[in-house]
UniProtKB/TrEMBL annotation:
<feature type="region of interest" description="Disordered">
    <location>
        <begin position="1"/>
        <end position="35"/>
    </location>
</feature>
<keyword id="KW-0255">Endonuclease</keyword>
<feature type="compositionally biased region" description="Polar residues">
    <location>
        <begin position="19"/>
        <end position="28"/>
    </location>
</feature>
<dbReference type="InterPro" id="IPR011320">
    <property type="entry name" value="RNase_H1_N"/>
</dbReference>
<dbReference type="InterPro" id="IPR012337">
    <property type="entry name" value="RNaseH-like_sf"/>
</dbReference>
<keyword id="KW-0378">Hydrolase</keyword>
<dbReference type="InterPro" id="IPR037056">
    <property type="entry name" value="RNase_H1_N_sf"/>
</dbReference>
<dbReference type="GO" id="GO:0003676">
    <property type="term" value="F:nucleic acid binding"/>
</dbReference>
<feature type="region of interest" description="Disordered">
    <location>
        <begin position="384"/>
        <end position="403"/>
    </location>
</feature>
<keyword id="KW-0540">Nuclease</keyword>
<dbReference type="GO" id="GO:0043137">
    <property type="term" value="P:DNA replication, removal of RNA primer"/>
</dbReference>
<dbReference type="GO" id="GO:0046872">
    <property type="term" value="F:metal ion binding"/>
</dbReference>
<comment type="similarity">
    <text>Belongs to the RNase H family.</text>
</comment>
<dbReference type="Pfam" id="PF01693">
    <property type="entry name" value="Cauli_VI"/>
</dbReference>
<protein>
    <recommendedName>
        <fullName>ribonuclease H</fullName>
        <ecNumber>3.1.26.4</ecNumber>
    </recommendedName>
</protein>
<keyword id="KW-0479">Metal-binding</keyword>
<dbReference type="InterPro" id="IPR036397">
    <property type="entry name" value="RNaseH_sf"/>
</dbReference>
Length: 403
């Protein structure tokens, strides 16, 4: 739903002056071209913020730029106002009404937004956001509300399928008043089509001519994987039991999917039995087990673990692994081991992503990982109990409580 669909545009102009309005030069017409008017692309946050008259120029400023903010407009005045943070008059013949509503179903703050830049703030940098553009507020609100009613995707491999309706897609090709089918590219733009493009058409690579899609081609675009294609989703969790006692033990849980032989349920090794070390160890085990050639997303309910390996480590490395209070970083050994694995995968051009999920919130994958971790901790407790019965000593370190 974002403004990422290219449309025919005049010759590229790197950046417009805020004082003059350039006159776009006409581009060569084709049978597919509709008289939808020029489009203006305002890049508020990108490599070179400014006003652009070609989608390709706009795309060059936002591709690879983290947190890019941009929007397309039908008029120069609206684009320039957006770029400079100016609110245009809301009355009179020149009044500009909000005709677009952005429903954020999954993002930082879900809801309905009328300002695309505000909507972008809720989704940029957010793992697997879910959002769409609507022409009415009612449709956007229904979309946001429906977010909690969808069944959870299959964990492990993202097999769950979801129906995707392409705006403007029609079962039958457009016909004139006499019932005769229009020549491909000459018919009217179908209702709901976005940015002046007819999704029912495609370019025949053999002839170079525009043609209608076949029924099979239209149907093939209506289902897609619920998760990111090709990404292996792995749930991890840690658990600690009997904190503060001689039986204090933590467990590690890694969940790839139902009955998957790669699932892990084991006691945490070492003398420091804390929940945080169990969470980090679960992530390390998941990365160790996952195929090195495949992108992965690790889902965990530990914000601490995610922040350690995505944000905090940057300053810790710079400060020789000392905190701002000049104390050694806790769990440095595990954090560095995870970072090494991530960097090895990065060298192979394989992504390692993280997603936070609320714990104990009836998510099947998170609950499965939690059970595996608890079972691992229970085994640790039993092993220590057996050791005490046989007279073996227990190190003092296990008496510490959960960090």
């Amino acid at each position: 739903m974002n403004e990422s669909t290219p449309s025919p545009s005049p010759a590229p102009v790197p950046k417009a002056s805020s004082h003059t309005k350039p006159s776009p030069s006409p581009s060569a017409g084709t049978k597919r071209k509709r008289t939808t008017g020029a489009k203006y692309y305002a890049v508020k946050n990108g490599f070179k913020p400014g006003l652009y008259y070609s989608w390709n120029d706009c795309l060059a400023q936002i591709t690879g730029f983290k947190g890019a903010i941009f929007q397309s407009f039908p008029s120069f005045e609206e684009a320039n106002a957006f770029l400079n943070g100016v609110k245009l008059p809301s009355s009179g013949s020149s009044a500009i009404e909000n005709t677009r509503f952005y429903g954020i179903q999954r993002g930082r703050v879900p809801g309905v937004y009328t300002d695309w830049s505000k909507a972008q703030e809720q989704i940029r940098g957010f793992t697997r956001p879910r959002y769409r553009k609507f022409s009415t507020r009612e449709e956007a609100e229904d979309f946001v509300k429906s977010g909690g009613e969808k069944p959870p995707p299959a964990v492990g491999f993202g097999e769950a399928q979801t129906t995707v309706v392409t705006p403007g897609m029609m079962k039958e090709n457009a016909k004139n008043a006499d019932g005769v089918e229009f020549v491909a590219g000459d018919g009217p733009l179908p209702p709901g089509a976005e940015d002046g493009f007819d999704p029912n058409l495609l370019l025949n690579p053999a002839t170079g001519k525009v043609m209608y899609k076949t029924t099979q081609q239209k149907t093939a675009t209506k289902t897609q994987a619920a998760g990111i294609p090709g990404v292996l989703r792995i749930y991890t969790d840690g658990s600690s039991l009997r904190n503060g006692t001689k039986l204090a033990s933590a467990g590690v849980g890694v969940y790839f999917g139902p009955g998957d032989s790669r699932n892990v349920s084991e006691p945490l090794k070492g003398s420091r039995q804390t929940n945080q070390r169990a969470e980090l160890t679960a992530i390390l085990r998941a990365i160790d087990i996952a195929p090195r050639h495949r992108d992965i997303t690790i889902i965990t309910d530990s914000r601490y673990a995610i922040d350690c390996v995505t944000v905090w480590f940057i300053n810790w490395r710079r400060n020789d692994w000392m905190t701002k209070d000049k104390k050694p970083v806790e769990n440095r050994d595990l954090i560095e081991s995870i970072l090494v694995k991530i960097e090895e995968r990065h060298e192979l051009k394989v992504k390692t992503q993280f997603e936070w999920i609320k714990g104990h919130n009836k998510d099947p994958g998170n609950e499965a990982a939690d059970r595996l971790a608890v079972n691992g901790a229970q085994r640790g407790v039993q092993e220590k109990a057996d050791s005490l019965e046989t007279g073996l000593t227990v190190p003092d370190e296990v008496l510490q409580d959960e960090v």
